[in-house]
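Hi C.,

You asked whether I'd gotten around to modeling the 338-residue construct. I have! Everything is below, sequence then structure, no commentary in between.
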Amino acid sequence: MKSFCFKFTIIIIVFALSFVCKIPVFSIELQSAASSISVDTKDINSLTEVQQIEKLLDDLEKDWNDHNIEKVTRVYADDFVNGDGLNLEAVTNLTTELWEAYPDIMTIGQERTIRIDGDYATVYSSDIYSGTSKNAREEVGTKGTLRAVANGEVFLKKYGPKWKIVSDKTIYETVSIGYGVGADLVEENKIKLSAPEQVVSDRLYTATLDFHISEDLKPVASISKELLIYPQVTAEDKFRLVDSSNLERLFKANMISKNELITATVGLTGGSIQPTLLGLVFLSKRVNVIPVSNETDDISIIKEPAKSALNHKPEKTSESTKEEQTNNKEDVQKETED
């Protein structure tokens, strides 16, 4: 069977897709249909600022869906760096490559929450992406259907009268692309990839691929891990004929605290009766990696729990201290005599 080298894409989503599809592509997050204001933004000035941010995000969603890279990038600060270490240039390149690979890709924003603190703001949003690949896969003769979900935070800073996006943090993302019969199976949730959303660096974790498909379909699958870095380094796929209802693989999180992307590649055939490739499925899921350190340099360690000011006892005077010391000496002397 031909090796499945796939090119596809989606920030929160795009970067993941860039690894699965083997083409570095990227999208800009944070679009939403409804919003709420945090308790920190009740005064009239903050409400006005929220309206400005709402308009910025609404315009960004429209410009992103129009595939207008010039308008999209103008709301980003020049020194923008996202949670995976990508700068504005990398984001721009990945985004345009994503649009080229998926000419009709669109994002639909869900509920968003805006929190403002002076000249800084944080937006939490959940977004859904969908699109169809520009090119058909030669193996199955059909185009791919992309679906993605991303949750994350966007950080903004006010420069004069304008807000700019200075960074982001992806909390959760999952991407699927299906070709042929694979598209229907993904839509029906018959093939699922599971992995932890967050792990500690240098620790083991398991990724599982579950199948709920008819017996006349025979899957050949692989599960691989890649670091979310740019330019990307592609892992080699090792395919296995899956005879059971799931395929598991044990991974060890990297020691440099780089976030990771788990990718499952599935080829669907009719088995020995119909060995033709009937469909392809590509699933990816983000695994955020957090550092662990035993170093204590430059870190203040509190050995006793903090006490409430309500329980604060007045400091002892020098006289009371002397009296206590005298009493302690007398107690020690008495114990010695005894």
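If it helps when you're writing up: The helical segments are 13-20, 44-65, 69-73, 88-101, 181-187, 318-337.

Thanks,
B.
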